[in-house]
Amino acid sequence: MADTAALLDDLRAEGESLEALVSGLDPGQWLRPTPAVGWTIAHQIAHLAWTDARAGEAITAPEVFAREVAESRRAPDRFVDDGAAAGAAEQPAALLSRWRAGRTHLIDLLAELPAGAKLPWYGPAMGAASMATARLMETWAHGQDVADALGVRRPATARLRHIAHIGTRARDYAYLVHDLDPPQEEFRVELTAPDGSLWCYGPPTATQRVSGPALDFCLLVTQRAHRDDLALRVDGAEARRWLGIAQAFAGPPGRGRRAGGTPGATGPTGQDDDGGPAPVPAPGARIAGCAVGRAAPVARTAKRSRAARAADLVRTSDAARTAESARTADSARTADPVRTAHSARTTDPARAAGGVAVPACPSGAVRPSGARG
User: Fold this and answer.
1) Do residues 230 and 212 make contact, with C-beta atoms less than 8 angstroms apart?
2) Using CA atoms, how far apart are residues 245 and 283, in angstroms rounded to an integer?
3) What are phi and psi of 102, to 5 degrees?
């Protein structure tokens, strides 16, 4: 349980960091709009409180949670917005207190969850480590929306590693939800951590490569930044395409942000290998040879196959979280973080099994800023 305990400590720290950002706001500032269309700062915090409460309910009252899930299916496009709107109508002090109590209670519940136990969710059932990782990613992403609304640049922390890990492992899922076949070859991702060390994923000999600040990569995969606003370097046409569709959350792709609207980014983009922009597939694009929106029968069969593969990928993996914790501990003990990270990566049991942890917001996404769905 030591690895899960460290993860829960990071989740606690992420929540406290966001609370420090909003605790001194006056009531008028809570009504300030954020990059998520129609959502104020109050909506962002209310959404986090609402989701923490549902997660706690899934542990303590699964039968009640099952009724919540059934109810959500009656209004799949509205229930998350309704929950956020209800919370946003509270007085800020009451909302802040409720969120603080709820997230603390959830952390306590996750810490007590027996090893191997799964809790029901809106998608696949999740273990303690996977739920904690999902909550950390969502807290960070919505915290970025709040920071951008306030014009605040938040310091990057080592907690970004959890988000970067999900972002790299969800590569194939991003292709599948865009109705594209994932590449067979692995990519190399080399990210500069906040302390200057390297977080490395994939074989060092890969020809498709992404490198740059870990912060910028996390902004990209949570769709809190446009590629053109980030200092990410990409080599290879397929890696460029991935950066145009990358997402670290389960559910349909969001629109993300427009270029020039990312105050939290490190800086302007680095050059591609050919200096070109990252292409983004058009909505509804099919496999090669099929017209957009007019797929031939064989294309429809392929689409169903990709949808099934995407569903298979949306499963959580506590083994992946354990391996990631081991990588973090090993990197702290070695003078060669690149070699250590690569060694652990190649022995990751979840990777060997083809698994990937793709956590989901109840709405099916981490509420991509710029869109509410």
Assistant:
1) yes
2) 11
3) -70, -45
Q: What is the pLDDT of residues 235-280, one digit of tens each?
A: 999 999 999 999 998 877 767 788 876 555 554 433 333 333 333 3
Q: Which two tokens stand for residue 247?
A: 């997402």
Place of tokens 């966001």: 18
Helix 160-169 vs helix 128-150: crossing angle, to nearest 10: 110
Burial letters 215-236, b for 16+ CB under 10 A, else e:
bbbbbbbbbbbbbebbbbbbbb
What's the token pair of residue 215?
Answer: 């912060």
Q: Which two tokens stand for residue 109?
A: 């519940």
CA separation for the pair 26, 32 (Å, rounded) = 11
Using one digit for the tens of pLDDT, what is the confidence trace for 36-94?
999 999 999 999 999 999 999 999 999 999 999 999 999 888 999 999 999 999 999 99
Residue 114 burial (CB count, 10 A)? 8
Domains along the sequence of the chain with CATH:
2-158 (1.20.120.450), 161-352 (no CATH)
Angle formed at CA 127 by CA 126 and CA 131, multiple of 5 degrees: 70
Q: Classify residue 267 by burial, with Cβ atoms within 10 Å: 0-12, 13-18, 19+.
A: exposed
For the whole model, what pTM was predicted? Answer: 0.77
User: Among 271, 280, 252, 201, which Cα is nearest to 364's?
Assistant: 252
First to last CA, the chain: 36
| Exposed / middle / buried, residue 203 (Cβ in 10 Å: 0-12, 13-18, 19+) | middle
What are 21's two structure tokens? 């950002």
130 contacts 359 by C-beta, under 8 angstroms? yes
213 phi/psi in degrees, rounded to 5 = -65, 140
Instruction: Indicate the DSSP class of residue 184.
Output: S
Half-sphere exposure of 135 (CA within 13 A, CB side): 34
